Amino acid sequence: MASDPSILERTDERTDRPGPDAPVAVSLEHVTKRYAETTAVDDVSLSIRDGEFFTLVGPSGCGKTTTLRLLAGFEHPTEGRVRFGGVDVSAVPPEDRGVGIVFQNYALFPHMSVGENVAYGLEFADPPGDVSDEQRVADLLELVDLAGMEDRDPDQLSGGQQQRVAIARALAPSPDVLLLDEPMSALDAQLRERLRVQVKAIQRELGITTIYVTHDQEEALAISDRVAVMSEGMPEQIAPPRAIYRQPETQFVAEFIGDNNVFPGTVTALDERATLEVGPETMTITTDADLAVGDEVAFCVRPENLQVDAERNTTTATVDNAEFLGQTTRVHLEWHGRELLVRTREPPSGDVVVGFDPADAHVVDVR
Q1: pTM score, two decimals?
Q2: Strand 87-88 vs strand 329-335: parallel, antiparallel, or unpaired?
Q3: Cα–Cα nearest to 262, from 191, 341, 354
C-alpha cells in the first residue's frame, strides 16, 4: 500500500510523545508462542512506555494479533514473560489485567442501548473517582463525541459511531492499558481517516498507554508514537514513524512501508561517498553504513526522491503506466527488467531520464 509522505509531517507535529526515559508500562521478555509446529511469535522482547501510542503493523500472519492476544491474556506464552508495570502477568486472566479491549467487529450487544453497552464495561469494576455509573457513561459518550445518544440502539449508528461506542465501553473502568485490534478495518477509507484522528485525540487527552494492531501502513504512520514492523513472528524494526519511513533498517521494512525503489549494487570505491555498480550504471550514495569495496548492498530511494530530468545518478527508464492519485501521479517505469516508481505532478511518457540526490539513498542490506 502506498503511504502519503505528508502524513509524516502531520504526525511529527506532536512534541509531547513519551521519551526514552518514560516509565515502562508494558513489556515482553523473550516471548514465544507456538501452536503445535507453528511459531506465531518468536522470541519477542519489547518495551512500551507509559502513555505511549504503540502500533504493531505487518502483513497477515506476521504475529501482530497473537502478540496483542498475549498482552490481553487471551493467550499465554509458550516461553517468556509478559509484564505490566514490572509485574509478571503471564498467567493472569484478562479480567484481572486492567486492560480495555476494542475489537475489529465492535462486539456491541444489539439488544442493549448505547448507554447500556458502555455501562457493561462497569459490570466487573467500579467507575473511577466518586461518580455514578450514569455519570461515567455520560462523560465517556461526550469524550467520544456521542453525547446524548445513550438511548439509541447500536443499529441506529454508523460504523464509525459504533466503533466509538466500543472505545467508550473499553474505557469505562479506566483501564491502565488500551488494546485495539484492527478497529478500523471494516470502515471505508474516508471514515477511517476521520476516526483515527479521533482515536488519537482521545488517547492524548487521557494519556493512556495504547497498543494498536493494523495492517494499514499509512494508519500506523499517522497515529503512532512508535511503530513495530512485524514479520514472521518478530519485529523487524521498532522506531518512530519518521524513522520507519526514512531510515528502514531492513529491506522488508523498506518494501512493506509505503512505495519504495530498492536497488542492488556492488561497492566499487569509497571516499566521501560510496560508488556502486548498479546494473549497467555507476551511482554514488551518501551513507553511514560500514561498507568495504566489493560489498553487495541494497539501497532504497523513495518515489518522491526519484526525480525526472535529474542531474545526478541518472539512468534512462521507460514509462509503463501511470496512476493519477489527485495531488500526484504515481508513474511505473520499466528499467532493465525491474520496476521503478516515481511521483510526479504531470505523467511523463516514453523514455525518461530519472535520478536522485546521493543523500536521498538509504542502505538497507549489506552482504
Answers
A1: 0.91
A2: unpaired
A3: 341
